[in-house]
Amino acid sequence: MDAYDSKKKDKYDITITPKGKHFTYSDRVELEQMIKAGKSIPEMAAHFEKCTRSITREMERCIGDYSADEAQKDIQKAKERQKMAARTAVATRIEKNEKEYKKIIRACLKLDPKADIIDIKIATGFPIERVEKYYDEIYQEVVKKK
């Protein structure tokens, strides 16, 4: 534990939670049972090896009708949203890369309208598959404009 963590612990009277240890479904069910049994927050924090704030946060989720099952469903929804965001980011990156490839190939053809696929591959350093994918489309566009 470094000096910063030590000061934080002393100031806020908390323990530093080891990274990577998150509440699982079974932990939430167990926490629900401990709440119903009347255990104190420090007792639960010691049991789960978490800070009291983490326990309080999980307790707020488990109060009333919000059960461990619902908390688990919320976690699953959050994971699905993260996956969807990652897929969208990948699709956006691919689309951006395709636009960049086309832009560079188009520029090469405008410089030399008689350039063939090999010339463009050499000039750009792009894999031949990428050049072939866009070459005909862009070649027709550039040559027919002249």
Compile the SSE list and pairings:
Elements: H1 3-12, H2 25-37, H3 41-48, H4 52-62, H5 68-111, H6 117-124, H7 128-145
Describe the structure.
The protein is an all-alpha fold and 146 residues long. The protein folds into 2 domains: 1-66; 85-146. Helices cover 77% and strands 0% of the residues. It has 7 helices and no strands. The chain has helices spanning 3-12, 25-37, 41-48, 52-62, 68-111, 117-124, 128-145. It is rod-shaped. The chain starts with a helix and ends with a helix.
Task: Supply database-style keywords.
146 residues; mainly alpha; 2 domains; 77% helix; rod-shaped
What does this entry show, briefly?
The chain folds into two domains: about 70 residues; about 60 residues. The N and C termini lie far apart (about 70 Å).
Please give the number of β-strands: 0
Q: How many domains make up the 3D coordinates?
A: 2
| Secondary-structure element string | HHHHHHH
Mean pLDDT across all amino acids: 78
Measured by DSSP, the beta-strand proportion falls in under 5%
Q: Output the number of helix runs.
A: 7
Low-pLDDT residue intervals, each spanning 5 or more residues? none
The main pleated sheet reads as: none
Structural class: mainly alpha
Cα separation of the termini: 70 Å
How would you describe the shape?
Answer: rod-shaped
